[in-house]
Amino acid sequence: MTNKIQSYLVSRRKFMKQSAAVTGAAAAASSMALPFKASATDAAPAGEETIKYSACLVNCGSRCPFKVHVRDGVAVKISPEDGVDEAIFGQHQIRPCLRGRSARFRAYNPDRLKYPMKRVGKRGEGKFKRISWDEATTILATELTRVIETHGNEAVYYNYGSGLTGGNLQGPNTCRRLLNVAGGFLGSHNTYSEAQMNAIQPYVFGQAGNIYGTEQQTLFSEIKNSDLVVMFGQNLAETRMSGGGQIAEIYHALEQSNAKVILIDPRRTDSVTAFASEWLPIRPGTDAALVAALGHTLIKEDLIDEEMLNRFAVGWDESTLPESAPENSSYKSYILGLGDDQVEKTPEWASELTGIPAVRIKQLAREIAGAKAAWISQGWGVQRTQTGEQASRAIMMLPIMTGHFGRHGTNIGTWGGSVPYVLSGLALPNPVKASIPCFLWTDAIVRGSEMTAKADHVRGVEKLSTDIKFLWNYASNVAGNQHSDLNRTHEILADESKLEFNLVWDNHMTPTARYADLLLPDVSTMETDDLINNSYQSGAYHYMVRVQQAIEPMWENRRVYDVLTEVAEKMGLKEAYTEGRTYEQWLEHAYGQVRKNNPALPTFAETDGMGVVDRRLADSSEHIALKDFRENPEANPLKTPSGKIEIYSEALAELAQERPMLEGDDISPIPVYHPAVEGIEDHEMLKKYPLQLTGFHTKGHTHSTYASVAHLKEVAPDTVWMNEIDAMQRGIKHGEQVEVFNDRGRLRMPVKVTARIIPGTVAIPEGAWAQKNKAGVDVGGCINTLTTMRATALAKGNPQHTNLVEIERV
């Protein structure tokens, strides 16, 4: 087996050696035990080829199925599905992107975890001893039981992570099932991606339009009816580039409408080219100022239908404010400078903050007001800032002010909806009702018993009963890589007096894996079976895929369900955990539950080898945000206190009085522009660190998944983007090694000197694996060496795009 793998994968060893030399993967590979020996020939072994359907299940949003070509037990090729007409949207190939096409390289990567191991050094040193599966399951059962009996179930926390978000039966749901059978665990709410947007939206529309919130988000297919598309920080050509996803939907819609597209972003992203767009560069954190200035032009040029606006919304002007609101506290008063700050939000005022010329701000306001159907949306990066709730909410005001909502071709300033293919799985309700914002897990380790609903956005209880003592990390590189301020996070994880046990279960030796007390190797998706849906990326196009094991699990890797069946047995919980079913029986049972609702589906046996079992195309006209409300607001009131869109939120005004806040935080009843800590107006900090640092998603990896694959590092290397003006001032040239630093840490990586980013701002792709040298400098290029851990005021969400740094040549 090992020689066969080598023949296929190392037959291109010259390319791999070159790639590894460039990326540093060669050094990592040389220190790892490979699953094969070197071959003296480049010839592929002979054998009959078989094909199995697998899929890329990482958190880009999509679930792209693909065919795995297997010869003599070795995956030799990945190819897209066939048998569909590429010319017809909804019947086109769900082609995986370059990441999904690299699935076999990820499965055979030298850093694959091979055996269960336990820590023998200090936590974080990455020193482990190989153990048997029997010892591993005994340790897990014993430690979980001990922590629950000593501290209670609330002391056990399943850490937020998205490395196998697409797994339905294999993975996250399997782990949480065992924990729930054992009495439950401390839950989490929010996501690292969209906490602020989802937290603020109910205050505006009465319901969160999250990734599945089609009631509150229009499908991208409606762009076919738009004549203008305005996107704030939404880079769909890279973040949604898979074959089955929203990028295909948008291309199809734009082909029909030929709408003008305007992208507002600090970077000139690939979407600008892909959509033939106009790029308006903007400084990070100033979106709310731009929207206020657009509103100023709309007011001054009499481009707002105030009678319409007051019918559908409260708080635009003084006439619709609640009785509790102070004088001149409406959004219109704020824009005109009649509110507390007494600053008129003119285009000239906004231009100083945003970097967008005042004349272009005025033109944009006129374009939106004059459009027949303007689609207005935002990416999640806008709200991943220290004042993200206000920025996100301000963008939602733009379609409201201009009347572009509830009609064909319009959205409500949010992302854009998806229609999920609903599946059955292994989920059980969590008996523990307490839940924390997922970004505050490090707080819950050091001060969990102090965290409250009032101050920390805890849900289910008024106050937590204990600190986190047991951390369960499955397919999650959050703890050691994706969380903020990694040096501070290291101190928290390394303190064994606080965190008593840390379980890590993954495919690879990630930075998080180095902190494990018990480190377990998981199968890759090509080594198991599952039943998956399209998840949240595919918009109107949704489907179901039967994933079937393509290759045998390598080394001693085992499926999670089988391992936890042994753990459950040692805890006396096997019957409740398995309900008498094997994994294969659960898979067939889950399919049967779906087929009950759709008897036309083939039998389970007939789905062998099908891959995509069912595909559907939603009618976008049935998924237009606020459509019923727009047609008859009296008969279809929103779930807000007023029943209308709340431009002024009395609930937020009350919360601002009740919640303790740090200096510089703000919760406002209207969507004001508030200067961010470490933002463009933090003048004292700017003297020391004059560059704004923001992150972005790269094509080379999905968050940190695929980040160790040498092929992808060669194709899409991680670099820090820097404007030519800023580089010239520092004597920095394109391609040089630079150090990016602030008070939280230093990282070293190559620089990309380019006009594709606004001056004063630098950008680093998120997801690179942190790797410190002896001097404490992160030579892996992980942006979270530098990002702030200061959570946002309302959602207690992820602020990782609000940082100030300096850059110097190495």
Helices and strands, with pairings:
Layout (H helix, E strand, L loop, with lengths): L1 H8 L3 H11 L1 H6 L18 E8 L7 E8 L2 E6 L23 H5 L9 E3 L8 E3 L2 H19 L4 E3 L13 H10 L5 E3 L5 H11 L22 E5 L3 H4 L6 H12 L2 E5 L5 H5 L3 E3 L6 H14 L5 H7 E2 L16 H6 L10 H8 L3 H13 L3 E5 L9 H15 L32 E3 L3 H7 L5 H4 L13 E5 L3 H5 L3 H9 L6 E6 L11 E4 L8 E4 L7 E7 L12 H11 L3 H5 L4 H15 L14 E6 L9 H5 L13 E2 L3 H9 L24 H6 L2 E6 L13 H6 L4 E3 L1 H6 L7 E6 L2 E9 L7 E5 L37 E7 L1
Parallel strand pairs: 6-14, 7-13, 8-9, 8-12, 9-10, 11-20, 14-15, 15-16, 21-25, 22-24
Antiparallel strand pairs: 1-2, 2-3, 4-5, 4-16, 17-18, 18-19, 21-26, 22-25, 23-24, 23-26
- Per DSSP, the total helix count is 28
Percent helix among the residues? 25-40%
End-to-end C-alpha gap: 45 Å
Radius of gyration: 26 Å
- By DSSP, the count of extended strands is 26
Structure description:
By secondary structure, the chain is α/β, with parallel strands linked by helices. It contains 28 helices and 26 strands. The strands form seven sheets. The chain has a six-stranded mixed β-sheet with strand order 5-4-16-15-14-6, covered by helices on one side. The protein has a six-stranded mixed beta barrel with strand order 21-25-22-24-23-26. Strands 10-9-8-12 form a four-stranded parallel β-sheet, covered by helices on one side. Helix 7 (195-205) packs across helix 16 (388-402). The longest helix has 19 residues, at 133-151. It starts with a helix and ends with a strand. The model is unreliable at 7-44 and 210-215 (pLDDT under 50).
